Amino acid sequence: MLRSIRHSSPGPHRWLRRDKRPPFSKADAEAIKTPTLFIGGANTKGALPQVLHTLAAHVKSSKTAMIPGTTHPMFEQAPQKFCEIVLEFLAGW
Question: Under a CB-based contact definition with an 8 Å cutoff, are residues 18 and 71 in contact?
Answer without folding.
Answer: no
